[in-house]
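Researcher: Re-running this chain for the archive, since the previous output was lost when a drive failed. Same request as before.
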Amino acid sequence: MLLPTYQARYEYLRLKGAVGKETFGFDRYMNQFFYRSPEWRRIRDLVITRDEGCDLGIQGREIFGRIIIHHMNPIRPEDIRNRSELLLNPEYLITTVHGTHLAIHYGDEHLLLQEPIERRPNDTCPWKR
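Model: Regenerated structure tokens:
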């Protein structure tokens, strides 16, 4: 939350991963089981409330669809086995939309929701500028 802008938060979180690179491989059942647990659902709700349902916790970027909670430090099967602090500590979690989450993992800024262009009178009429 120390980073005030959406772009600054995105740059900090960006992983520059590769599409198709496995994170859990055959151990994927572990994270699926974890994400259905009551303790995850409780922390997930807490993080959504803390971030006020906004993408990367930025006011004005409200999420109206599916909300994803991103682990700022990627988790591994060992983290789930050992119940690492990274799993359920809200300090390491942030609210995102699907496009932002993909952009963070794959470093593709084209996936980010862009701010609308601020319009001004006659900005599309070249002879009235």
